[in-house]
């Protein structure tokens, strides 16, 4: 729907979101703050959603944007919630999840962030099942399940 592509970096989006939401630090628990705002990673098999099987929409814990559908969730065995694709992954529209190269920690990975608020979500790996081969490996702390 947006008329102009949004070229802001995730950090710029996070700053803008924090500026208009001064209570953000109090509303997020420390783990969610670390993962979404400081690109932290929760320990494998410790998050609340890696084994989650309920149906629904996973939303950004920071801004509430719909990011992933339970129908795209699969059991990767990696200890983090894993998805084959974000919702509305239509090439004609802006993706709800941004991806960029992340060469921190001595690895070259693809970082994923919320395209609305810049929240760090996790990483994207090319070893997923299905037609795309994508595995969106997401911290439980960065998302919240809206059941249906
Ligand atoms: Zn967001």
Word description of this protein:
- This protein is an alpha+beta fold.
- It starts with 9 loop residues before the first helix and ends with a strand.
- The strands form two sheets. It has a six-stranded antiparallel β-sheet.
- Helices cover 16% and strands 27% of the residues.
- It has a single domain, classed as Peptide methionine sulfoxide reductase (Metal Binding Protein, Guanine Nucleotide Exchange Factor, Chain A, Beta Complex), CATH 2.170.150.
- The relative contact order is 0.25.
- A hairpin with a 5-residue loop joins strand 1 (56-60) and strand 2.
- Bound molecules: zinc ion.
- Zinc ion (ZN) binds next to loops.
Compact overview of the structure:
It is built from 3 helices and 9 strands. By secondary structure, it is of the alpha+beta class.
List keywords for this structure.
148 residues, alpha+beta, Metal Binding Protein, Guanine Nucleotide Exchange Factor, Chain A, six-stranded antiparallel beta sheet, binds zinc ion
| Total strand segments | 9
Bound molecules: zinc ion
Give the name of the CATH superfamily.
Answer: Peptide methionine sulfoxide reductase
In terms of per-residue confidence, which ranges show pLDDT below 50 for 5 or more consecutive residues?
A: none
How are the strands ordered across the major sheet?
Answer: 3-4-8-7-6-5
Number of helices: 3
Q: Any guess at the CATH architecture?
A: Beta Complex
What is the CA-CA span between the terminal residues? 25 Å
Strand content: 25-35%
- Helix residue percentage: 10-25%
């Amino acid at each position: 729907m947006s008329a102009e592509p949004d070229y802001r970096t995730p950090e710029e989006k996070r700053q803008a979101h924090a500026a208009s939401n001064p209570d953000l630090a109090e509303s997020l628990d420390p783990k969610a703050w670390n993962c979404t705002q400081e690109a932290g990673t929760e320990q494998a098999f410790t998050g609340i959603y890696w084994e989650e099987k309920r149906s629904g929409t996973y939303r950004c814990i920071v801004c509430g944007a719909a990011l992933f559908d339970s129908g795209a969730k699969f059991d990767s065995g990696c200890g983090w919630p894993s998805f084959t694709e974000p919702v509305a992954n239509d090439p004609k529209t802006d993706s709800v999840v941004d991806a960029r190269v992340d060469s921190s920690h001595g690895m070259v990975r693809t970082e994923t962030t919320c395209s609305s608020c810049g929240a760090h979500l996790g990483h994207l790996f090319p070893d997923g099942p299905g037609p795309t081969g994508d595995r969106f490996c997401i911290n439980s702390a960065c998302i919240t399940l809206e059941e249906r």
